[in-house]
């Protein structure tokens, strides 16, 4: 009787290990079939804003080729139209940008006047992975800052 009880207890322990192993394998395979978030990139886009304060209306137009390089980028602001030059277009890294942040600053005449900031973003719900800042000044000066990070 004692041997039979010992064999039964040993069998129960083995079954628990087998069930735990099966459950662990099952839990890991569930993640293999989980849905993944994908990037819906901006290829051709046009954004319009009535603006704020004395910014006036702002229109941004962009177009990328199949290699994700911008081939056209225009900004209408302050009653003027600004076209990025081929040189400036090349400064924007070819990424699957899927977000744009647009802000305005009144600026100072001696520093180029009013300013539009355009932040191109690539990321997911978990966070932005890469940012490129385009600064467009009223005097026509346009700068592009890759891997933009603002430190507080």
Description:
The structure is a single chain. With 152 residues, this protein is of the alpha+beta class. It has a domain at 44-145. Helix content is 24%, strand content 41%. The chain contains 2 helices and 8 strands. The strands form 2 sheets. The chain has a 4-stranded antiparallel β-sheet with strand order 1-2-3-4. Strands 5-6-7-8 form a 4-stranded antiparallel β-sheet, with no helix packed on it. The N and C termini lie far apart (75 Å).
List its traits.
single chain, 152 residues, four-stranded antiparallel sheet, 24% helix
Topology:
Layout: H1 2-32, E1 44-49, E2 58-64, E3 70-77, E4 80-83, H2 86-91, E5 99-108, E6 113-124, E7 127-137, E8 142-145
Antiparallel strand pairs: 1-2, 2-3, 3-4, 5-6, 6-7, 7-8
| Strand residue content | 35-45%
Low-pLDDT segments = none
Radius of gyration: 28 Å
Strand order of the largest sheet: 1-2-3-4
Percent range for helical residues?
10-25%
Report the span from N to C terminus. Answer: 75 Å
What is the structural class?
alpha+beta
Helix and strand succession?
Answer: HEEEEHEEEE
What's the helix count?
2
Number of strands: 8
Outline, from the CA principal axes? rod-shaped
Mean pLDDT: 87
- Main beta sheet: 4 strands, antiparallel
Compose a concise summary of this entry.
The chain has helices at 2-32, 86-91, and strands spanning 44-49, 58-64, 70-77, 80-83, 99-108, 113-124, 127-137, 142-145. The chain is an alpha+beta fold and 152 residues long.
């Amino acid at each position: 009787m004692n041997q039979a009880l010992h064999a039964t207890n040993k069998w129960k322990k083995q079954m628990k290990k087998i069930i735990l192993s099966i459950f662990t394998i099952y839990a890991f395979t569930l993640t293999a079939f989980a849905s993944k978030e994908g990037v819906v990139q901006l290829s051709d886009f046009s954004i319009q804003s009535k603006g704020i304060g004395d910014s006036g209306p702002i229109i941004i137009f962009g177009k990328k080729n199949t290699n994700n390089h911008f081939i056209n980028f225009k900004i209408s602001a302050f009653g003027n139209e600004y076209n990025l030059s081929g040189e400036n277009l090349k400064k924007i890294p070819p990424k699957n940008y899927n977000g744009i942040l647009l802000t305005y600053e009144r600026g100072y005449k001696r520093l180029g006047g009013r300013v539009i900031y355009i932040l191109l973003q690539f990321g997911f719900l978990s966070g932005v992975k890469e940012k490129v800042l385009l600064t467009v000044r009223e005097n026509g000066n346009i700068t592009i800052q890759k891997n933009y990070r603002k430190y507080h």
